[in-house]
Amino acid sequence: MRIHRQSSRLTFRKRRRRSGCLSFTVLLGLLTGIITLSWNWFGQRFNPSASSQPIGVNARGVLEAFDRGDLDSTVELAQQILAVDPNNVDALTLLVRALVYRSYSDYNRAVDRDSALQITTEAVTRSPRSMDLLAIHAFALQAVGQPGAAAAAAQKVLEDNPDNTIARIALGLAYGGAGSYEVSLRENLRAVEGTSWQLDARRALAISYSDLGDYDTAIKTIERAISLNTHLTTLYFERALYALQIGDADAATVAYFQIIAYDPDNVKARLRLCELSSMMRERDAAIDYCHQVTELAPTWSEGWYRLGREYFLQGNFQPAQEYLHHCSSLQVMQDIPTEERRFECWYLQGQAAEMLGDCPALLATYNEYLAMAADSELRQTWLYPPEGPPSCVTPPPDT
User: Fold this and answer.
1) Tens of pLDDT along the chain (399 residues)?
2) Which residues are CB-contacts of 344 (< 8 A; sequence separation ≥ 6)?
3) Which of 44, 102, 288, 395 is 20 to 30 A from 301, comparing alpha carbons?
4) Which domains occur in the chain, in start order?
């Protein structure tokens, strides 16, 4: 079973938690996390490049920023070096890694993956014989969902140098992206045998284990990656994802709290906490987290959908209708392709209007949905009789 990382819907075996104060497990996990982070901080303080590959002197500051988990500084410093020395492979490699990992760190960072691919495409065009550039290009290709091209590039590198770890990682991730999970695991097991790129290799291996449904091993593997860079928030999202697959809501909560500790304005972590609280039927907590999402990211329709959905599940239909209307309006204003729109923003909005007896709003919402359905093929259907919603049909006068 492959986890779809682009989806915000959580599916896992539920384990009921006590609502209210944090459970003892969560508190113990937080305390353990603090101790672990402190220990690793001292380790990285005196050996900042322990988790990375050997690198040139010019890019040393970029590497140190990456090892601190400071991806913004990593990107900025690498760009400064490349502005002077466009062929600096070390700086370019760190830049692409930082962009790819930053792309998973919050809701509005997906464009970073496209930037990474553009950078590597230009680099291999300038230096088509550089196997190191081709390897990082393969890494960028798999990140944007082009497993075939990524595998072809990685295999070309490995034919020249079977010990190129980043190419091996890219190949393993590409096979996983294409659904060949056993082959992906084989390649990523070979990648962790190398002496460089251990953080990337461990993360890729954890993904392979999760694709095969071995979540316990995936957790152990991603924790090893976290120990190599305790400030990289992307790894905590992975840790939470695997914990949820085995129903460990407490461990997932701890992981999300650690993200917020490093990045107090992280919207994606708050949305995940909203989803998690909703699954645990902790409605007040879910609404609180979703409100935080809409405050921090008022133009993100997903936050308004989750907030409206929570009110709908509570039976509080007036705010549900309002917030779901925000969701549908934003998607139209932002010209999101019809096939990619969140259908539930229209459907639940209409159901809330029907429960409130608001026929004008219900008919307007339903007619908007019908117009979308006429222009494209929607996976979901919402149909009333030809005369319209039964609750809004005026009965014929008595004769």
Assistant:
1) 444 444 444 444 444 444 444 454 445 455 545 444 444 444 444 344 444 455 665 788 999 999 999 999 999 999 999 999 998 999 999 999 999 999 999 999 999 999 999 999 999 999 999 999 999 999 999 999 999 999 999 999 999 999 999 999 999 999 999 999 999 999 999 999 988 899 999 999 999 999 999 999 999 999 999 999 999 999 999 999 999 999 999 999 999 999 999 999 999 999 999 999 999 999 999 999 999 999 999 999 999 999 999 999 999 999 999 999 999 999 999 999 999 999 999 999 999 999 999 999 999 999 999 999 988 888 888 999 888 888 887 766 665
2) 305, 309, 324
3) 102
4) 48-231 (1.25.40.10), 298-393 (1.25.40.10)
At 197, list the tokens.
């790129």
